[in-house]
């Protein structure tokens, strides 16, 4: 697994990626790397108002890793969460299928994506693994559909209407 360049150009090794896809989950080495990537993203966040830094690392189905930090604005409504930043970077480069996202903060708690981020990520699949990391790298993981059951998504737009 290559991880020297903690940027959007980071990638999961092809052999590891194939094992992840066939197993349906990340292996322990990749989970540790996901924590490192999310922490690196957190260190790049811009949070001058809340001082609550968040980093997200998003692994695409192609093996690319996209990092995002929360970006605050004095116009609070324009603030973007770390998860949204990572997804927007990936989608703007043509990625639309994702395997996992890791979220890291400066707190010693399992901080989960907010409701808006959950809804935002559902757009790209309910089976996404979501890792909530504590400072020591321990984590809780969920499928996105567990965090946002009965969500509204693209499939709902295809339902018949009167």
What order do the helices and strands follow? HHEEHEHEEH
Strand order of the largest sheet: 2-1-3-4-5
Largest sheet: 5 strands, mixed
| Record field, number of beta strands | 5
Cα-atom Rg, whole angstroms? 15 Å
Number of H/I helices: 5
Unreliable parts? 1-7
Please state the structural category: alpha+beta
Shape: globular
How much of the sequence lies in strands comes to 15-25%
Distance between the first and last residues' Cα: 51 Å
Q: Helix fraction? A: 25-40%
Rounded mean pLDDT score: 93
Keywords, separated by commas or semicolons:
about 160 residues; alpha+beta; 5-stranded mixed β-sheet; 5 helices; 5 strands; globular; disordered N terminus
Describe this structure in words.
The protein has 162 residues and is of the alpha+beta class. The protein is 30% helix and 19% strand. It is built from 5 helices and 5 strands. It has helices at residues 14-23, 28-42, 82-92, 115-122, 144-147; strands at 54-60, 65-69, 98-105, 129-133, 139-143. It has a 5-stranded mixed β-sheet. The longest helix is centred in the N-terminal third of the chain and has 15 residues, at 28-42. The protein is globular. Residues 1-7 have low confidence and may be disordered.
């Amino acid at each position: 697994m290559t991880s020297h360049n903690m940027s959007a150009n980071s990638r999961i090794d092809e052999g590891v990626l194939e094992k992840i896809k066939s197993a349906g989950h990340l292996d322990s080495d990749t989970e540790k790397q996901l924590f490192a990537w999310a922490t690196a993203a957190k260190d790049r966040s811009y949070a001058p108002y809340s001082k609550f830094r968040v980093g997200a690392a998003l692994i695409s189905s192609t093996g690319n890793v996209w990092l995002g930090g929360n970006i605050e604005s004095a116009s609070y409504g324009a603030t973007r969460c770390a998860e949204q930043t990572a997804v927007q970077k990936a989608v703007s480069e043509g990625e639309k299928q994702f395997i996992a996202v890791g979220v890291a903060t400066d707190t010693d708690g399992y901080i989960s994506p907010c409701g808006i981020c959950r809804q935002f990520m559902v757009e790209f699949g309910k089976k996404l693994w979501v890792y909530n990391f504590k400072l020591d790298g321990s984590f809780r993981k969920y499928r996105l559909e567990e965090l946002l059951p009965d969500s509204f998504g693209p499939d709902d737009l295809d339902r018949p209407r009167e």
